TrEMBL record:
Name of the protein in its database record: HECT domain-containing protein
GO molecular function: ubiquitin-protein transferase activity
Organism: Dreissena polymorpha
Keywords from the UniProt entry: Ubl conjugation pathway
Residue ranges constituting the HECT domain according to the UniProt record: 19-56
Keyword Zinc: no
Length: 63
């Protein structure tokens, strides 16, 4: 999955549209415009960004 650091939450919500067959395979993250191979660290960074963006979004704060 190609994601943008500044839009990790929005990109994560795009997972809802992924087919069931695609969800069966391991999730691989690639940050757009960056080099890196996902050996687990990029997934952790992505999850961290999603949680941070979610906790600072209007979805949680009721803005």
């Amino acid at each position: 999955m190609e994601v943008r650091r500044g839009s990790a939450l929005k990109d994560a919500l795009g997972l809802v549209r992924i087919s069931q067959g695609d969800l069966a395979s391991p999730l691989r993250i690639r940050f757009i415009g960056e080099e890196g191979v996902d050996m687990g660290c990029l997934r952790r960074e992505f999850r961290s960004l999603v949680v941070h963006q979610l906790t600072h979004s209007s979805l949680v704060k009721g803005r």
